[in-house]
Amino acid sequence: MSIQSEIITEIKKYDRIIIHRHQRPDPDALGSQVGLAEILRESFPTKEIYQVGETVEGLRFLAEMETIEDQVYQNALVIVTDTANSPRISDKRYDLGDKLIKIDHHPNDEPYGDLVWVNRDASSCSEMIAEFALLFPDELKINAQAARLLYAGIVGDTGRFLYPATTSRTLEIAAILMSYPFDASALNREIEQMPMKVAKLSGYIYQNIEVDEHGAGKVILSQEILSKYAIDDSETAAIVSLPGVIDEVLAWGIFVQQPEGYYRVRLRSKGPVINELAKRHHGGGHPLASGANAKDLTEVAEIYQEIQEMCRAFNK
């Protein structure tokens, strides 16, 4: 039996299903989580389906979360989407249910859960959820809201189909989702739009990025800079890809200082594999898109030196 068949068998068994995803969600986290929830609501109208976790203001146009009591987890199936490591799961009650399923497209460094479906070749977890529904057309029904959410997740994690993980199947699935009655153009605009303060921070990024002769880039966003632009950490996600449009930049890190003093590190690459670097600094992720943490500016400098060494080796 395939893992997908095992998952749908478990879904059918339970009358109550609670779906989680990772902290600080992006469109793919919300798209896969709530897209799956909408598919299950449409397919099994008598089941109780919940989506939980913190809500991010800038993504309310995609979905809202639900608040449930601890006892709701009793005899429930819990599914976690788009989350490689259990410490990153939003809402720590994910282990209170009867059974736990992990669905993800990141490297499977922590195979938590009773059932684990990981596809590192998928562009996004939203693509996996759409593929899951398409595998069982007689049992799982996609509605317009589910299609909108899954399309948003695919667009978000592929950088509007620009990133290397985009395959012909990714485009096929996106085309299928676009056949449902939602306004894809309006959704694309909502995903792309940013507040004026974030646009101004974008200017700061371009003016202050440090790039060495091998294409290693670095930007440090201190608490002072974040305060100046009235930006919080969650809003910096919109500027992470900006250095990638610069010809001379090959791989880069954006180091965002947190109120506690440490730095959240957002790593991106056009070639050198960076997720092993991320793992060495309390993080992880994809080969070309990862996250890490630095306790202070000394560790920031260490991470940047590693990026420099990787770019130097890649260019040889």
Automatic annotation (TrEMBL):
This is Bifunctional oligoribonuclease/PAP phosphatase NrnA. It holds the Pfam family DHH. GO terms for molecular function: nucleic acid binding. InterPro entries: DDH_dom, DHH_sf, DHHA1_dom, Oligoribo/pAp-PDE_c-di-AMP_PDE. It comes from the Bacteria. Residues 228-311 form the DHHA1 domain. Residues 16-154 form the DDH domain.
